[in-house]
Amino acid sequence: xxxxxxxxxxxxKLSMLFKMQxxxxxxxxxxxxxxxxxxxxxxxxxxxxxxxxxxxxxxAKVDPDAAxxxxxxxxxxxxxxxxxxxxxxPEALENIPxxxxxxxxxxxxx
Length: 110
Known about the structure:
Layout: H1 9-27, H2 31-44, H3 49-62, H4 64-70, H5 77-85, H6 90-94, H7 105-108
């Protein structure tokens, strides 16, 4: 974890492993631990919307005010507004669809 090169394949894999661990912690209702692991993953991949939203969902369970402060990190303004509107409804927040990246047209032509 300490010896990392940002943008490398190893960093991407490590970020993905942290994300999986955080998702497990969340499902186990260990929300603070999930938030801590999401933060580790974000150190490696700070612009990953799925990590940011996972952190917000986890943080909302233990500290809603801190979760609201994290909303500014969301990359998609429309998505951010949708999450803001659901902050009082944790169940709706858990079921919000995550934004997706537009598909590269060159890849779909192959």
